[in-house]
Every structure is written in C-alpha cells, then in structure tokens.
Specification:
Length: 605
C-alpha cells in the first residue's frame, strides 16, 4: 500500500522532486515519509536521508541537488509509526538505501539469521531485512570492487538483487539505491512498478501518476524483470536468468491537469463533481467494451462479480441489475471471500473483477484463482496497465481519470454504468440502457446543483455531532445504502450502518432511539411501499428520517429530491450521500481525502 519513487538523472536535479512525487503518492499511505539521495562527487559522495513519521509537511527546508534519489510514503504494516520505522532503510555500511511496498512474510527468520551474522538493525520493519540481505550477498560477490568493469555494467548488482529477492516471500516491490555505482535497481512480485523515461532522466514508481510531468514513455514492469536505472538510461534483465530483456514502452497519456485539484479544495469533491462527465465518456467510448462483456457473459456458465469495499458494493448492485434487466443470475462475491467459494469455478465460468486501482491484493488473488481453474477473467478497471488489467483476458477500462481521494466515488458510478449498459445489451435493449444512462447523467447534474447542496448542508449541520447513522434501502437501493454508509464512515468516523430495509424488524430496529438519524433510499420502483413502511416504523420510534427520493413522503423529516431515472437510480441516489460525507468531514475538521488508517490501494493482506 506504500508509495515508492526514485530517479537517476544525467544532470543534477533537486531532491525536492522526490518529495513532490511522494505528495502525489501519499494516497497510498500517510503514516510516514522519507527520502534518500546522494550529494558530492562520485567516489566522495554521501548519502543524505531525511525521514519522518506523519504526513509530508506543506513546506520543507530546501533539499540538495542530486543525480540519484528515492523516496517512500508509508502505510504501516510491520513496525509502529515512528521516524525510525519510516523508509528509506539502510544496510550497516550506508552503501545501500531502499524503499519497499509489500510485506516480507519470512522477515523474522531472515532477520534472525542476519543478526547472527552480525548485522545491526535500526528499525522494527520487515523491509529492512532486504537491505542487510543484499549487503550480505554483495560482501561475497567476487567482482564487487568499487570501480571494476562488472560494477559499471551493473550485472553483479543484478545478480545480488536476484538472489536476495529469491529469498524473500510475499508480494513485494523494492527500489534500491546503490551509492558506489550510482544506480537504482528495482524488482517486484505482484506489487506494481512503472519505469518512466523523460528528458531529464529515468524514473521508477509504484504508480504512473507520480511520473506525470517527468516521463513521456512508460513501461509497466512484469514480475520476471529487474531494472537497473543509471545515468545513461534503464537496462532490463530477466529475474530468473539475469539475461537482458527488452521493455515494452508506451506513451504516458496522463497530463498534469488530470492530477491537479483544478480549483476544488479537495480531491473528494472534485471527483464527486466529475461523475457526470465520466458517465458521458463511458456512453461515448465504452459501448463496444460493454457489448463484448455481454458476449462473454452470454457464453459463460456461471458468472461472478468480485470486488472489495466500494467495488464490492458495485458488484452487488451489478447482480441486482443483471437479474432485473437481463434475467440473468450473476453472483456477487467479496473478493477476499472468493477463495472460499472458488470451488464452483470451471473452464466455462466467467469472473469479472471490479477494481479502481487494479492492484487490490484480494482481487488479484481472486483473478489468479479463476485463472488456475481455467475460468475466463474480465475486468472493469480504472488504472490502465495495473496488475488486474494485465491479468484479465478482457478489460473494459473505466476511463474515470485518476481517482486521488482515498474514498472511491467516480470509479463506483463508472462501474455501475458499465454493468447497467452490459445488462441491457444482454437483454437486447441497448437503446434503453443508453437512454436511461443519459437521463442519469442529467440526474447527477441536478444532484450536484446548489438546491440539493443546500439540503445536504442542512443535514450535515444536524448530523455533525451524531455518533451513529443508519441507512436503509431495498432491492437496487440496498447496495446504495451500504455504499452510502461506507462513505459516511470513512469520511467522518461516524458509525454509519447500511441495512436492507426488510432486515429492520429482524433486530436492527433495536438500535433506533430518539433522534437517531436514518437515511432512506426510496426510488419510484417496486421497493417504494415497503421501504416507506420501514421509514415510518423507525420514525415512530424517534428516528430523524432523511429521504433521498424523487418524491416526498410523510415519513421523511427532510426530503432530498433526486431525478427519477428508473434502473439507473443507484448512480444518481449515491451522489447526495457522497456530498453528505464530504460536508460532514469538513464540519468535523477532517481531511476528506485521507481518512485515518486508510490507503488508496490495498496491496497487502
Ligand atoms: C472506499 C474505497 C475502498 C475501495 C476498495 C477496493 O471508498 O475506496 O473500499 O473501493 O479498497 O479498491 P479497488 O477498487 O482499487 O480495488
């Protein structure tokens, strides 16, 4: 989940470039941050390391000029949040500095044996073992002399990293700075790494987004590669054999404007507002993708939608959409639970992986399980080139643009749009799907208009000190209730629970007391009479009821009107809930983009 970045440049650059890159990667973890870079002439150079617990400060003392640097932004797994445990980590001699994303699963055994060999550890992290392991291997490397030819071509270093990496277990990515040879070396297993080439040097990062403004061409590293970055460019080698390899360069299409705040105070509110444009783009550009996905579903015998968190709720909503629109049973499974149900998979199954980042470890494992059983894998992914994108037999890119708030919003509605369209295509009613989604685009615009915002702000004023909040929906609105509650939880730390409206009387209603806030999703569909009964029942027991619905009702203390867009109601109804989460976060003095304990891509278990 950590963000990692490094560069090697022929002409010195400010090490602040790394700090700026880390700011774009901070959504991957913000427990601590750190950089390391060399200063001084070759042979007489020194390693400067600066690392701290906490977020990257807005202003920092000027950093030096350097030709080689790396940095890290941490989501702590092993070792508490301290300066000491912040990356980069060094070997005993200060020759090597490294940054790591992942978990070295066998670090205890490795550490014990390295300590027995005399290595002194400075941190409690799993990551540091790799620095000492590499140091130990390099000590024994015959051609590791300071100026030998072998050192110049970096092959012995490649061999050392290959051997060290072969000894660590888990899903890991490392960038290692080797001071004497002024090279960075990067290696990975499942955890992502992207190499970028630009006019000022060569870069490597966990995310392509950190390469924007630096690189024109990028290469997504595969698990069987090692890359050495030197002043004269990158060289790629096979991780198993050490033989040279050729990268597959592609154009980096992201622009600086895609990653900027664009006048908004936070990414969350920017991304909420981007949703109508994202859906429009899907309707214009992804029709063929949805048609192909429909064909895959038609040919399959057993279709599974898998995802985590918000993507898992999109999967659940998808199963309702396929049932009601296409009369097709499509299973929705939380990706982390999928391995306990994978026994049903055959070579006729289709697994559709839903993931914004394409790097969520549980989704990757679900995809790998599906492939092992011969199933076909399709994916709805926002980050092109991500692991899920590359593993899938077929991808419908969500093209929502970088989602930088830790809270997922636009990728959620983008997934719903693709699933709804696909369900209609499967049903032979493509034009109906297109029509209803164009209406949803207008409906989302209305939900973002000042009139709705005024109501949302009134609700936020009332809920700002609430400890609990309940959210109910039925049918298509049940996943909406779950997703709305998740947004409120993440952004505000208010305990918010989503329920199927029908479950109320089976226990949940015991929670309702005088003034309990209860949000009710009530579209004009078959769920309306029953969900309104539920709303009335909680109201009778003292709940303060907010209705998100095209029509008012006596059950609501406060009504948030939304457009009636038929089966596309989940796309529109979620918008007021997203806005409410944002408004509450601001009122509670919280950073809506970086909630505590979270990170954008969950790449570890
Ligand atoms: C919630 C949220 C998470 C993600 C989940 C899956 O706001 O962002 O629940 O949806 O971690 O992430 P992806 O979609 O990247 O697989």
């Amino acid at each position: 989940m950590c963000g990692i970045f490094g560069f090697v440049a022929p002409q010195p650059l400010s090490a602040e470039l790394v700090v700026e890159a880390l700011r774009t990667l901070e959504y991957r973890g913000y427990d601590s941050w750190g950089i390391a870079y060399t200063v001084g002439e070759p042979g007489r150079d020194e390693l400067v390391v600066h690392k701290r617990a906490g977020r990257i400060p807005l202003s920092l003392p000027p950093a030096g000029l350097t030709t080689i640097a790396l940095g890290h932004t941490r989501w702590a797994t092993h070792g508490s949040v301290t300066d000491q445990n912040a990356h980069p980590h060094l070997d005993c001699t200060g020759t090597l500095a490294l940054v790591h994303n992942g978990i070295v699963e066998n670090y205890r055994a490795l550490r014990a044996s390295l300590e027995r060999a005399g290595h002194r550890f400075q941190s409690h992290t799993d990551s540091e073992v790799f620095a000492h392991l590499l140091e130990e291997i390099l000590k024994k490397a015959p051609s590791a002399g300071p100026n030998g030819t072998a050192m110049q071509d970096g092959r012995w270093l490649v061999d050392a990293v290959r051997h060290a990496f072969a000894q660590v277990r888990g899903l890991n990515a490392f960038i290692v700075l080797h001071r004497p040879s002024r090279q960075l070396i990067a290696v990975k297993s499942t955890s992502p790494l992207v190499v970028g080439l630009g006019p000022r040097g060569v870069f490597v990062s966990s995310d392509a987004v950190a390469l924007v403004g630096h690189a024109h061409r990028i290469h997504y590293m595969t698990d069987d590669e090692i890359v050495v970055l030197a002043e004269d460019g990158p060289r790629f080698f096979d991780r198993c054999t050490g033989a040279p390899r050729s990268p597959r360069w592609e154009h980096l299409s992201l622009r600086p404007a895609d990653t900027s705040l664009g006048g908004y105070p936070h990414y969350l509110i920017k991304e909420i507002h981007e949703q109508p444009r994202v859906i429009e783009r899907i309707l214009r550009d992804r029709l063929d993708g949805a048609r192909q996905l429909a064909e895959f579903i038609r040919r399959s015998y057993g279709t599974f939608l898998v995802g985590c968190g918000t993507a898992g709720y999109a999967a659940l909503c998808g199963s309702y959409l396929f049932s009601r629109i296409a009369r097709r049973h499509v299973n929705a499974v939380i990706a982390s639970e999928f391995k306990y149900q994978e026994h049903f998979l055959t070579d006729r199954s289709l697994v559709i992986a839903l993931s914004q980042s394409g790097e969520t470890v549980d989704v990757i494992e679900a995809v790998q399980a599906a492939k092992r059983r011969g199933a076909t894998v399709a994916a709805l992914v926002n980050v092109t080139g991500s692991t899920v994108d590359r593993l899938a037999d077929f991808t419908v890119p969500l093209s929502a643009g970088p989602e930088q708030s830790v809270l997922s919003t636009k990728a959620y509605t983008a997934k719903l749009a693709v699933l709804l369209l696909t369900a209609h295509i499967l049903n032979g009613s493509e034009h109906v799907g297109l029509d209803v989604l164009w209406r949803a685009v207008d409906g989302m615009q209305q939900a973002l208009a000042p009139a709705t915002l005024d109501r949302i702000r009134a609700i936020a004023d009332r809920l700002v000190r609430a400890e609990h909040c309940y959210v109910i929906g039925r049918g298509l609105s049940y996943p909406t209730a779950l997703e709305a509650a998740l947004k409120i939880k993440e952004a505000t730390y208010i305990h918010a629970e989503g329920f199927a409206g029908g479950e109320l009387k089976h226990g949940v209603i015991a929670l309702i007391e005088e003034g309990s806030p209860c949000i009710v999703f009530s579209p004009l569909d078959e769920t309306r009479p029953d969900i309104l009964s539920g709303a009335m029942e909680v109201r009778s027991r003292g709940a303060w009821v907010v209705g998100i619905s095209p029509e008012p009702d006596d059950a609501f203390h406060l009504h948030v009107p939304i457009a009636d867009v038929g089966d596309a109601s989940p796309l529109v109804a979620i918008v007021p809930a997203q806005l409410l989460a944002y408004e509450l976060a601001i009122r509670r003095g919280l950073d809506p983009d970086k909630p505590r304990n979270l990170a954008k891509s969950v790449t570890v278990k």
